[in-house]
Amino acid sequence: MTKQILILPGDGIGKEVTTSAVEVLDYLKASNDLDFNVLERDVGGTSYDLYGKPLTEETLEIAKNSDAVLFGAVGGPQWEHLGWDLRPEQALLGLRKSLGLFANLRPAFLFNELASASPLKNHIIENLDILIVRELTGGVYFGEPRGLVEDSDPKYAFNTMVYNEDEIRRIAKVAFEAAMSRNKKLCSVEKANVLEVSKFWRGIVTEMGPDYPEVELSHQLADNTAMQLVLNPNQYDVIVSSNLFGDILSDIAATLTGSIGMLPSASLNSSGQGMYEPCHGSAPDIAGQGIANPLAMISSLAMALEYSLGRKDLAVKIESAIKHFIQEGHRTKDISTSSDFIKTSEVAPILINFMKNE
Ligand code: IPM
Ligand code: MG
After folding, report:
1. Which atom of ligand 1 lies at the shortest distance from residue 247's CA?
2. Are 280 and 312 contacting, i.e. CB atoms less than 8 angstroms apart?
3. Into which CATH architecture does domain 1-101+284-358 fall?
4. Residue nearest to ligand 1 atom 12, measured at CA
5. How far is the CA of 248 from the centre of ligand 1 (A)?
6. Architecture field, domain 129-256
């Protein structure tokens, strides 16, 4: 059956890195005779400039009908003055909510060859391989009521951090299952010492523990996790957390590797549909220079092949080409330790060459 893939390059370096991922995808399509229908649309600030909205109904409709969405990045200083609903980030939040992409998988791993790029000492960071499972369609990001009350003295603003038991169970299930396929350790992170919603979260996750007797389950307070991630990140295998804490912890985890330009992510719904995006943002400071690292976007394509397109074999192929690329010493600017580096456009051809000769 034909699989549909929607490419949303977005803004800034999003465009550059998706071009590289599409090159890899085109190669795989041609060499494996894949029945993939690939479409491309604008999103974020670029869509705002063209159509007055960060996400048009047409694009959202195509996204809903696609098996996988490859999302570059959105945002930039030229759109910061815009009102709330027109900001580029709303495209991301709108896609997550409308497609029901509740499970955000954010791996943080290190290629030991790149350990010196990490802000941590080599012996602490070496062999890092953790997975953060972040809840993505609930919690304080979407909780109601929310708002700003200006006709009061003092004025105030408020949001609601809310989770029902079903939302907690479904994200915890994803995390327990991920732990089963990895090193069988799961750490659930909240603020059960302060927040009712967190205490409730901890209770539900605890209840589920016995269903996964092989998984060593622990619970941690989010502030402690932030600290432990820096002190001893290798104590973790899978971390599961809410939308807000997961957002913060995944940035810490990604930064530990010293090369945020390497890390992919997947956001999945219950029918296997997914949106795939690099962890880095639109990086307006280097946009248009052709120096961005497209490996995170290309790894995100690998995740799409594995989770939404039924071709884990091709995901493995991409991942092994990336490993090869690093081992052979190819470096984009962000991961280069000398003044020598290759440009964005040189990356995909090198990877394709590895895949051809495998
Ligand atoms: C992320 C980003 C987004 C979030 C922003 C851009 C809305 O930080 O994907 O982690 O907070 O979820
Ligand atoms: Mg974030």
Report:
1. 10
2. no
3. 3-Layer(aba) Sandwich (3.40)
4. 247
5. 9
6. 3-Layer(aba) Sandwich (3.40)
